[in-house]
Write a structure and sequence with these properties.
With about 300 residues, the protein is α+β, with helices and mostly antiparallel strands. It is built from seven helices and nine strands; from the N terminus they run E-E-E-E-H-E-E-H-E-E-E-H-H-H-H-H. Among the domains are: about 140 residues, Ku70, Chain: A, Domain 2; about 35 residues, no CATH class.
């Protein structure tokens, strides 16, 4: 079954244009989903719109949107009024500005889509635009009406087509100062900084999405399977917390420093042993020399007698 397009329109740069379609690139449809069930009867439960004051059910035709201007007071907005206020969709993705592929902070990335030509006839123009972006190593910014809202999209080349990501508006992204303003600036240097750099260096790698498992999803699947088979799920023991007395100790443990630190006293003790051996050999040497001196002094006395 061919995937269903979320949007169809035209991709345009200068005088070049071609019909294209947007397809969902990331979906949660394959996740485990549950129905709401009545525990007593085992039947599914239906949701129903109810008037908050009267408690009576409200028909779908009688439901409209309202903006609260004061407590309990609303400005009512009809569907036709919203439709008239929405910017008119021209169904065109015109590449307005070209930027570096990493020129947008990832915090502004919203949802990714695959952007592809709708037919074979438009594939040549589409591939020409894709190769142009790829050769220049740039991405493009474009705007169009998606799902009744004017959206800005970041369009970048991929191996086989184009990826179009909707972007958050500036007012939708919370200022970082709201979160980070209370964090104190701490001067970290010396061994702690060296250990931190060492840990980062030893754990460098590349992103491979196949190596990351959705443990929550796997646990739900195992639970459902166990319930169907009438068996209990074995509870995994919680990992034992490691005892850490300081930030430096934590870094040492992470970097394997605890093993190296345990070797350090051994070197000192061996040094002490070597010192003891040297002092013992010196002492034995002195006593031997003393014995020789005594024997030399006593020998003439035996001769005189």
């Amino acid at each position: 079954m061919a995937p269903r397009a979320n949007w169809k329109g035209y991709l345009k740069v200068g005088e070049l244009s071609c019909p294209v379609a947007l397809y969902t690139a990331a979906s949660t449809s394959d996740r485990v989903s549950f129905h709401i069930i009545n525990r007593e009867t085992g039947h599914r439960v239906q949701r129903e719109m109810v008037d908050a004051d009267t408690g009576k059910a409200v028909e779908s035709d009688d439901i409209i949107k309202g903006y609260e201007v004061s407590s309990g007071q609303y400005v009512l907005i009809e569907p036709d009024e919203i439709k008239a206020a929405v910017p008119e969709a021209d169904k065109t993705l015109e590449l307005e500005t070209f930027i570096a592929c990493n020129g947008v902070d990832t915090i502004y990335l919203d949802r990714p889509y695959f952007l592809a030509p709708t037919d074979k006839a438009s594939a040549d123009v589409f591939d020409l635009i894709r190769k142009g972006l790829e050769e220049k190593n740039v991405a493009a910014l474009a705007r169009t009406v998606l799902f009744r809202r004017m959206r800005t999209l970041l369009i970048r080349p991929s191996e086989e087509g184009l990826i179009a990501s909707t972007l958050n508006y500036d007012y939708e992204v919370r200022p970082a100062k709201e979160i980070f303003s209370d964090i104190k600036t701490i001067k970290i240097e010396g061994e702690m900084l060296d250990l931190a750099k060492h840990i980062i260096g030893t754990k460098k790698g590349t992103f491979d999405p196949t190596k990351f498992d959705d443990r929550y999803e796997a646990a739900l699947e195992e639970l459902i399977k166990a319930k169907i088979e009438g068996r209990k799920v074995k509870k995994k023991p919680a990992p034992e917390p490691q005892k850490v007395t300081s930030l430096l100790d934590a870094l040492r443990q992470s970097a394997g420093g605890s093993a190296s630190s345990s070797k350090t006293p051994a070197k000192k003790s061996s040094t002490k042993k070597n010192t003891a051996k040297k002092s013992a050999s010196k002492t034995s040497g002195k006593s031997a020399a003393a014995k020789k001196t005594v024997s030399r002094k006593t020998a003439p006395q035996r001769k005189a007698s």
